[in-house]
């Protein structure tokens, strides 16, 4: 497991990106999906995931849906229209960030 | 193996024991725990339901569900303020601004008349009592709602309880403000005090009467499950 602190600031972007590809997801599904995609490298903790989801919902980037699944209720999150726009922005920011880090950490390879 | 309905109910009780009193927050946590417990039991079939539940709960860290409840409180508190603010703005646009201006002028003129300052204090005291009366009525209503449904939603609690109390606090401070006038009778002081009283009256009216009347609509809009749970 890598340094979780490094991922912390990117949690919202990760969630938005996942929802862009998967239409609608519930909290537990997101944690499992991330674990799978990163082969266990990144494990989103419950204590961080839900506050992030709630914040995105409050900011109007996510909408919620509730469905009865078996004998329990499940809350699904999906992107709103402004959420879709914001995802594009955040991903662009992320690319910029990765590029900058690359310049800083590995100057040789970044000579263009 | 899918959890039974009894086990789901037990999980609701479990979240309540861990200081999650709101049904909307409980529901999300119960589904999360249930999914995780099912996964844990699949990997370790020898674990009992309680053992699997405790393993899952540990993943939430030393503070348990507290961070999640707090973040939800913060977000819905913000939502409430947004609603309050948008209604408040109506009172500063035509036609309602006429009423706002009348309230302001009433207090301003009252202060400008050469009457005993105590009259103003008495008037403030009466307003404070009306406020306390309305707030306690709301708080009773909230208790009754909880008794009827046995479910408390976080936004519902903010609408019926938290805001009512903040209105009472504001009014008790406004009451102290009228003492301010004993020391200064300048135009600015009067305008300042009359503006604050006007704002406090608007705030109380909106938080104690307007928003509670819209409670059902706001709850349905915030919680997709609200409607069909109450029809079950």
How would you characterize this protein structure?
Chain B: The chain crosses the membrane at residues 91-111, 117-138, 158-181, 187-211. Chain B: Keywords: Membrane, Transmembrane, Transmembrane helix. Chain A: InterPro entries: Metal_resp_DNA-bind_regulator (IPR052509), Tscrpt_reg_PadR_N (IPR005149), WH-like_DNA-bd_sf (IPR036388), WH_DNA-bd_sf (IPR036390). Chain A: It holds the Pfam family PadR. The complex is a heterodimer of chains A (112) and B (232). Chain A is an alpha+beta fold and 112 residues long. Helix content of chain A is 59%, strand content 17%. Chain A contains 5 helices and 3 strands; from the N terminus they run ααβααββα. Chain A has a 3-stranded antiparallel β-sheet with strand order 1-3-2. In chain A, helix 2 crosses helix 5 (81-105). Chain B has 232 residues and is an all-alpha fold. In chain B, 81% of the residues lie in helices and 0% in strands. Chains A and B meet through helix 3, helix 4, strand 2 and strand 3 of A and helix 2, helix 4 and helix 10 of B.
């Amino acid at each position: 497991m890598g340094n979780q602190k490094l991922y912390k600031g990117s949690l919202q972007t990760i969630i938005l990106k996942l929802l862009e590809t998967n239409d609608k997801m519930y909290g537990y599904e997101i944690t499992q999906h991330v674990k799978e995609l990163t082969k266990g490298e990144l494990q989103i903790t419950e204590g961080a995931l839900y506050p992030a989801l709630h914040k995105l919902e409050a900011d109007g980037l996510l909408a919620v849906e509730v469905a009865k699944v078996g004998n329990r209720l499940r809350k699904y999150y999906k992107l709103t229209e402004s959420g879709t726009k914001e995802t594009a922005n955040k991903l662009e920011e992320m690319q910029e960030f990765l590029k900058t880090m690359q310049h800083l950490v590995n100057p040789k390879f970044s000579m263009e | 193996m899918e959890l039974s309905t009894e086990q789901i109910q037990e999980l609701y009780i479990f979240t309540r024991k861990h200081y999650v009193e709101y049904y909307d927050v409980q529901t999300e946590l119960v589904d999360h725990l249930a999914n995780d417990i099912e996964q844990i039991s699949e990997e370790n079939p020898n674990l009992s339901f309680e053992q699997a539940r405790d393993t899952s709960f540990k993943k939430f860290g030393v503070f348990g569900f507290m961070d999640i409840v707090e973040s939800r409180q913060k977000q819905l508190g913000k939502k409430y303020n947004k609603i309050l603010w948008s209604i408040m703005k109506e009172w500063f646009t035509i036609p309602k601004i006429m009423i706002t201006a009348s309230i302001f002028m009433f207090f301003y003129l009252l202060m400008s008349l050469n009457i005993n300052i105590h009259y103003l204090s008495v008037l403030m005291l009466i307003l404070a009592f009306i406020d306390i009366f309305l707030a306690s009525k709301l708080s009773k209503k909230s208790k009754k709602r909880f008794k009827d449904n046995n479910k408390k939603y976080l936004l519902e609690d903010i609408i019926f309880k938290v805001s009512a109390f903040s209105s009472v606090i504001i009014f008790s401070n406004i009451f102290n403000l009228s003492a301010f006038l004993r020391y200064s009778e300048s135009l600015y002081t009067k305008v300042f005090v009359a503006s604050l009283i006007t704002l406090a009256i608007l705030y109380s009216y909106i938080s104690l009467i307007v928003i509670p009347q819209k409670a059902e609509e706001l709850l349905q809009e915030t919680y997709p499950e609200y409607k069909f749970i109450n029809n079950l």
